[in-house]
Amino acid sequence: MNLKNSVFLVILLIGFNSLNAQTWTTKQVGISNTFMQRMWFTGSTTGYATSGDNTGGTGSVLKTTNAGLTWTKYVTTCTNATYDVNFLNANTGFTCSFNGEISRSTNAGVNWTTVYANGSSNYLYTMGFLNANTGFAGGFSYTVRTTNGGTNWTESSLSGFQYSNSVLSSTKAIMCGSQTGSDGGVWTSTDAGASWNYVQVTASNILYDIYFVDANTGYVVGGGGLAYKTTNGGTSWGSALTTGSTNTFQCVYFQNANTGFIAGSGGSVYRTTNGGTNFTQCTTIPNISGQTQYDIAFLDANNAIMSGSQGALFKTTDEGLNWTTVGNNQQLNAITFVDASTGYVAGNSSSFQKTTDGGNTWQVYQSFSGAITSNAVEFIDASTGYIAGNTGNLIKTTNGGVNWTALTPGVATNILSLKFLDANTGYYGTTAGGVRITTNGGANWTALTTGAATNITSLSFPSANTGYLCSTGGIVRKTTNAGTNWTLLTTKITANLNSIYFLDDNTGWAVGASGKTIRTTNGGSVWDTTTTPGSTQALNSVRFGSVNQGIAVGNTGTIMVTNNGGVNWSAQTSGTTANLRSVYIGQLGTSLFVSGANGTILNSTDQVLPVELSFFNSSVTGRNVKLSWGTILEQNNSGFTIERKNSGGVWNDIGFVNGIATTNQQQSYSFDDRNLSSGKYSYRLKQIDFNGNYKYYNLSSEVIVGKPSSFALMQNYPNPFNPSTKISFEIPLDGMVSLKIYDVTGKEVMTLLEGYKTADYYTVNFDAKTLTSGIYFCKLAIQNESRNFVKTIKMVLSK
Questions:
Q1: What is the Cβ-side half-sphere exposure of residue 673, based on CA atoms within 13 angstroms?
Q2: How far apart are CA 586 and CA 608, in angstroms?
Q3: Gap between the Cα atoms of 233 and 217, Å rounded
Q4: 33 pLDDT exceeds 80?
């Protein structure tokens, strides 16, 4: 949370109720933790994909019924990861595994039965069917064949490795691979897979995929950026095509005789529109850095899906000109919001996503160059944000994440933590114990001396000068002068600390390894140690919304909550076993967000929140200041104490505005601070609930009351009065001032003010308890070197 909130301020004060009963909804989860190898679509919306997941020694097949937007995992009877999948019709399909097994489904992929298992457990990489009865599979030094729809399979030895196939007719099929492990070639069968004849295409690189446009025209691709084309059904392949890449190509697909794609390692995707004569690299695919693409499937003339490593899927709707990421499977290390609608999340492999609908949907919004591991994301407002990551990566956006500029942080080590207090002032912490500060929005960074030598995993600045950092070995350090000096605090623990959060200068918490939590209520002088019950998992992030209510998240889906300031913690069911990395108290009513491994984003909307401020601003009229603020909802809200201080002064209570107690309707509040002298003032609200919990909200900037622009004497108030009244006047220039009271005969009865005064606003109290009822006159006379001013007002004393 930014220390100096913008004029439009959105902050959430959280108070959990019935903590154990709250629920979490998965807003996003990665499709697969590992690669998605081959795909097979039985229609424009229904398809299947093999997965590298091997949970508990069981392979799985993924299924989509909405053209790849979402996928359901179905467990097969294979004992290792699946590699290829092939469906004969809408219900009957087969998959082969790394253990040389074949499983069959007869109910559209829901259930699977083993129909073949190789005793030597040699890989089966590819499989194909020439008709409903005859099919084959190839892999490591052997093939298997069925002639009765997959019920029985016969083995045959075949030297080399077969990785992919293309069926050309009811009798002809071709597989590609390597016979020696270093060359590349194709095996052709003209007797429905009963026998195979090998032809070497290249002596130097393995061929990984093959695709035929028709019975004559086909392509193979492989290592070293190689691609070859045949126009005679695979009899000969000619010279290598010019692809413009040296990366390994793993897949090839042609829509027609002219337009096709080849893709592979290093996020390389190339497109041709002239049958392979020339290829152009697709450079606008988000979040593809570091990926390897394994398969491409066109659903119709415009729409296609591309699968790859780390469970990544990409989709095009314009014939492959532009691609978007379908979901995100990367570990998401940091999540934040700037208002009720707009939020951001960042993580491994340049992963960056944005929501504009309050977290309901998340889109891969921008890809950075390289494969940046992002450890922290901070947004000052909807436009300006920062991402920090490994190897000294620090980038900035000024247009909401559309474009990013690399900053020069001055380090090459991993940046683990990042905290901005306002548009100019920010800090980051590194793996080497370093902390640096910027005072110009990241343009320059100055090294600070912290005394730490290990990972600065988290930073928290509850105010402009007071900050805390945590590190390995239970280390917490504190600064009271904006980072110039740091003091080592005694925490009583040696466990690694991963996250620290302070609600104010005195009240804070830190969490870390083995479920450890520590808390302080006196600025770190004394720390209480607790262990979250039932969990020894590392806790990675902690956040509190009030002095009592907080949440911590950690490994294997751990979510812990407290409603007594961290003295006791209770577990909530997250619905995931993914490592959870970051928690944020969101901006949509009763909404919290958690991000973690495998693209996981969780949301809870039934945590009860006392007060959510939607704005806090000010306006100045003369010497009067009007404060306005609003809430989206309130729970147990007693009201707001208004506090003010002038430059260099102390905070003083100047008023109180009652709250609505409990409501889910928007409310507006205001407070008038009148008759101020010229100067600079700061304001804050102290929101208090009926249990005594409180939270401060600071106005974004100082309020300036300028000097008067003209001489003025205001009518006294009240008038009539008994026995006292206030008289206000304004002088724009320094000078001698006389303020006197006269009766109706013109006799002077009292001198209220006489002497030299500087230009300013003034209010004087006139106490008439010794005077009788009647009409009186107040005369203001001002003498200045350049101007004189005289004015008289009539007043009525009524006893």
A1: 27
A2: 12
A3: 6
A4: no
Residue 472 dihedral angles phi and psi, to the nearest 5°: -70, 165
Residue 10 or 677, more confident: 677
| Calpha distance 433→459 (Å, rounded) | 12
In single-letter form, the type of residue at position 667 comes to: Q
Please check the confidence at residue 212 and state whether its pLDDT lies above 80: yes
Say how many residues make up the chain.
799
Is 90 exceeded by the pLDDT of residue 470?
A: yes
Helix H, strand E, coil C: the string for 131-164 is CCCCEEEEEEEEEEEECCCCCCCEEEEEEEEEEE
Tokens of 289: 């850095």
**pTM for the whole structure:** 0.61
Residue type, 636: N
CB atoms within 10 A of CB 704: 11
Mean pLDDT of 643-650: 88
How many CB atoms sit inside 10 A of residue 157's CB?
A: 7
In three-state secondary structure terms, 78 is coil
Q: How confident is the model at residue 371 (pLDDT cuts 50, 70, 90)?
A: low
- The answer to whether residues 330 and 30 touch, using CB atoms and an 8 Å cutoff, is yes
Kindly state the DSSP code that residue 432 receives in the 8-state scheme. T
Give the whole-angstrom CA distance, residue 406 versus residue 28. Answer: 29
Per-residue confidence (pLDDT) for residue 367, from 0 to 100:
57
Q: Which of 563, 459, 562, 487 is nearest to 517 (CA)?
A: 562
| pLDDT tens digits, one per residue of 175-208 | 999 999 999 999 999 999 999 999 999 999 999 9
Question: Quick one: which of 220, 275, 229, 278 has its CA closest to 249?
Answer: 220
Phi, psi of 206 (to 5 degrees): -75, 145
Closest to 733 (Cα-Cα) out of 793, 789, 684, 677: 789
In this structure, of 34-48, 273-287, 486-500, 599-613, the range with the lowest mean pLDDT score is: 599-613
The fraction of the chain above a pLDDT of 70, given in percent, is 94
* Parallel/antiparallel/unpaired status of strands 260-264 and 249-254: antiparallel
- Nearest CA to 347 out of 320, 321, 368, 316 is that of 368
CA distance to 83, 93, 422, 785, per residue, from 106 (Å): 19, 7, 60, 103
